[in-house]
């Protein structure tokens, strides 16, 4: 056997791998407006553009069916794809659902999964139009693809942030991560003593954020009604820091974030204290919040009502300044993005 070069994926990370594969791909179709590198690809065949995005969830890596009800899993699988459509400032229209099932799953179990999928279809007004079903050697793998539409001038990419823009996030951050910590802790207790009932009452908000995230289509509609188009946008799936790196990388800009402006819910803060985790670290690196991170022209930011569920957390800077956090003590701390080393995490 000849000695072939072997590079561990961990050596370049998930994003490094995608970048490397992207470099080897040449686009041939005029209708392909945007390929790899954003929350969704963009295709134009008529006046409107179609956006396409897909996500793959694997049992044991992305979810644990010991505490994730199948109905919730179905809902979440749709919501996370709708969230990527939202991040393009597009409107979701259709989804397809593909699954690989081991013989551990009954017809009733699959129907439970689909009850959640149907609920999400109602919530986001999308049609389930197809998919694929196959056997799996072990566990469940679920993949959803979502299609959406927008006029070309409505689309928002990761690459449009300009120096001086206001950096905003919707909702609050870090809750889904803390919810996961609580669920994992209760699972350990349950494994040790199956008669113990999970203690989740005082963690309803954060557990809900982990199990049943919502795509922020409400905000997309609100901004459209105001006639405001963000200059850049991405949804927060891997954590705020990682998404800020994407915006910085694609837009060629620097980023300054004020630690004291990062929105963290009271319950998240309390749980973080209890687990002795820094709440800012949760918000920066936790992930799975599925909120929107976007940049706005300052004049547009002024036009948004202070009642709206968004927070200005910082400013777009020149690329030379890099990415940094202005801490509560007014120090500059360079941002680190764990999401850029996905395969290194564990
Ligand atoms: P998101 O977190 O928004 O779902 P990802 O980080 O998963 O985005 O993907 C970033 C970009 O890389 C997207 O454009 C996605 O379509 C593309 N991508 C991810 N995996 C692959 C792959 N195996 N082959 C081709 N493109 C991929
Ligand atoms: Mg995304």
TrEMBL record:
Sequence positions that bind Mg(2+) 4: 39, 53, 84
What are this entry's molecular-function GO terms? Answer: ATP binding; magnesium ion binding; thiamine-phosphate kinase activity
Enzyme class at the top of the EC tree: transferase
**Keywords, alphabetical:** ATP-binding, Kinase, Magnesium, Metal-binding, Nucleotide-binding, Thiamine biosynthesis, Transferase
Documented EC number(s): 2.7.4.16
Per UniProt, where does Mg(2+) 1 bind?
A: 54-55, 132
**Chain sites annotated for binding Mg(2+) 5:** 238
Chain sites annotated for binding substrate: 62, 288, 340
Q: What InterPro entries does UniProt report for this protein, alphabetically?
A: PurM-like_C_dom (IPR010918), PurM-like_C_sf (IPR036676), PurM-like_N (IPR016188), PurM-like_N_sf (IPR036921), ThiL-like (IPR006283)
Q: What reaction does this catalyse? A: thiamine phosphate + ATP = thiamine diphosphate + ADP
| Record-listed Mg(2+) 3 binding positions | 39, 84, 235
Residue positions binding ATP: 114, 131-132, 158, 237
Describe which pathway this protein belongs to, using the record's wording: Cofactor biosynthesis; thiamine diphosphate biosynthesis; thiamine diphosphate from thiamine phosphate: step 1/1
Outline the extent of the PurM-like N-terminal domain.
Answer: 37-149
Q: Which domain of life is it from?
A: Bacteria
Where along the chain is Mg(2+) 2 bound? 55, 84
Q: Which residues form the PurM-like C-terminal domain?
A: 162-279
Swiss-Prot/TrEMBL GO biological process terms: thiamine biosynthetic process; thiamine diphosphate biosynthetic process
Which PANTHER family does the record match to this protein? THIAMINE-MONOPHOSPHATE KINASE (PTHR30270:SF0)
Which family is this sequence assigned to?
Answer: Belongs to the thiamine-monophosphate kinase family.
- What is its biological role? Catalyzes the ATP-dependent phosphorylation of thiamine-monophosphate (TMP) to form thiamine-pyrophosphate (TPP), the active form of vitamin B1.
> What's the miscellaneous note?
Reaction mechanism of ThiL seems to utilize a direct, inline transfer of the gamma-phosphate of ATP to TMP rather than a phosphorylated enzyme intermediate.
The protein here is known as Thiamine-monophosphate kinase
Provide the species name.
Catalinimonas alkaloidigena
Q: What is the lineage of its organism?
A: Bacteria, Pseudomonadati, Bacteroidota, Cytophagia, Cytophagales
**Which gene carries the instructions for this protein?**
thiL
